[in-house]
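Note to self: keep these together.
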Amino acid sequence: MTFAEQYADAIEGRRVKLRKRGFALAAETVPPTGQAALWYADAVRCVPRSGQAVARQIARLCGDDSEVTIPWRSLAEAVGIRDRAGNLRRYTERGAKALTDAGWLEIETVGSKRGAKTTFRLLPGDRSSACLGQIDAKEWFTIDAKEWFTEAA
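Structure:
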């Protein structure tokens, strides 16, 4: 049995998805860019894993802006992680709540049920050393160039 015969079904499944999507890589896997990438770099250090997954997708959707309006269901599908009960949306809501409680996100919902529009706004959050880690300013700003180049060699 050749490789092509053995994996023909899996290859065809991926071809169908590629034709349907139009490109080889899902947009959800692309890292955040713009000012939202800087927000994401700080926010992921201060929240649990569910908040990190939500922060990544919100930052990806924001790009250079500081807010994005998207339905909860679409955000949950972009995050793509289920909780123990198998719910996408509940996991996403828990991650968004962690970001909100930490001060990194503001959520505003207009409307109700199917017509609801939810706006997610990026906030500066808590940049304390307890959250972001301790940086020794003396060591950070007084690097001796000779020492640095000799260590690197």
